[in-house]
Write a structure and sequence with these properties.
Helices cover about 65% and strands about 15% of the residues. The chain has about 325 residues and is α+β, with helices and mostly antiparallel strands. The structure holds adenosine-5'-triphosphate and magnesium ion. Magnesium ion (MG) binds near residues 216, 279 and 283. GO terms for molecular function: ATP binding; phosphorelay sensor kinase activity.
């Protein structure tokens, strides 16, 4: 704008000076002024058009950028979703492997017992001591062992059944059901699980997801007990009412604690201190996902002789 005014004033002065010196007619002077003004207006018009065009182009560029940005964000979100699904699947497979181990332990003892009863039956028959009472006893004992195996298998199937719905789950009963699956494995590893949880705590969650979360925590304790060669092994599970809407479940072990070098990253994927055949580092990541998905939280701290995991969940 300033340049235009300067040009206009300069043109006027120039024309004025020329007409003064060469004494031309006043009408020519007026025409010259008009030409100068119209030039200035044309120039202004040109500048204005140029500015509008530039603004339009900038707007178009911004629009195109926004569109590709949206595309890029969608692409990234989809990629992460797929990554999470793969991790979830991996975690499930790992849990399945661990559970198969647990089931194998649970089955070993009753299978041994049944084999023993069978071999005794043959020799007792030859000794002539197999009567009605013997048969009844034999049936009671074998049925008990077979029931134990069937119960374990039922728990196992329940654990991996998909499409479970979110429902009111009683925390104590859920822990007891999980304990039925891992009892023999933990017994073999000399681990006592001391459960001090109120009878009536209920949360809205998919039951097998909660079991999965708890299994990840207690299995980590089991590994730490073995790695650190701890003699007296105890996992304490306790419940505390935070307020009328929230419950805190704490899992405390005396397995030596989490290494300080990883404690801040422990809930990130692929953080592990174990060899590839022992751990992938997604157990606690998945546990945190499950807690968050259910509007809860999972935290960790070390105590004097072990680790404490705190699971916060909204009450049903
Ligand atoms: N109770 C615990 N005591 C000591 N260290 C622990 C405990 N719980 C977890 N950790 C440490 O945290 C790491 C991460 O645990 P996380 O469960 O996520 O993975 P992982 O057990 O290594 O492998 P995964 O669970 O996938 O088989 C473990 O490797 C271990 O070093
Ligand atoms: Mg683990």
């Amino acid at each position: 704008m300033h340049i235009i005014l300067i040009i206009l004033i300069f043109t006027l002065i120039l024309i004025g000076a020329i007409s003064y010196y060469i004494h031309i007619d006043m009408s020519i002077f007026v025409i010259a002024i008009l030409i100068a003004i119209s030039n200035a207006v044309l120039y202004m018009n040109y500048r204005l058009k140029k500015e509008v065009k530039e603004k339009f182009q900038a707007k178009e560029r911004l629009k195109a950028l926004n569109e590709t940005l949206e595309l890029r964000i969608n692409h990234e979100l989809k990629r992460r979703e797929e990554q999470d699904k793969v991790l979830e699947q991996q975690a499930k497979m790992a849990a399945m492997g661990e559970m198969m181990d647990a089931v194998a332990h649970q089955w070993k003892q009753p299978l041994n017992a049944i084999t023993l009863y069978e071999s005794l039956l043959k020799s007792d028959f030859q000794d002539g001591i197999v009567d009605q009472e013997y048969i009844n006893n034999f049936l009671d004992n074998t049925t008990m062992q077979i029931n134990h195996m069937v119960n374990t298998l039922d728990e196992f199937r329940k654990f991996f059944r998909d499409n479970q719905n979110i429902e009111k789950v009683n925390i104590k009963r859920c822990i007891e059901s999980l304990q039925r699956l891992i009892k023999d494995d933990f017994l073999k590893n000399h681990i006592t699980i001391d459960v001090n949880v109120d009878n009536d705590i209920e949360v809205n969650i998919k039951e097998n997801e909660l079991k999965h979360l708890i299994l990840n925590i207690v299995n980590n304790s089991k590994d730490a007990f073995n790695e650190n060669d701890i003699k007296k092994r105890i996992i304490k599970i306790t419940s505390t009412h935070i307020d009328k809407n929230q419950i805190l479940i704490e899992f405390e072990d005396n397995a030596g604690g989490i290494p300080e070098s990883i404690i801040d990253d422990i809930f990130k994927p692929n953080v592990t201190t174990k060899s590839a055949d022992k751990g992938t580092g997604i157990g606690l990541y998945m546990s945190m996902q499950i807690a968050n998905k259910n509007h809860g939280d999972l935290r960790v701290r070390n105590s004097e002789d072990g680790a404490i995991f705190s699971l916060l969940l909204p009450l049903a």
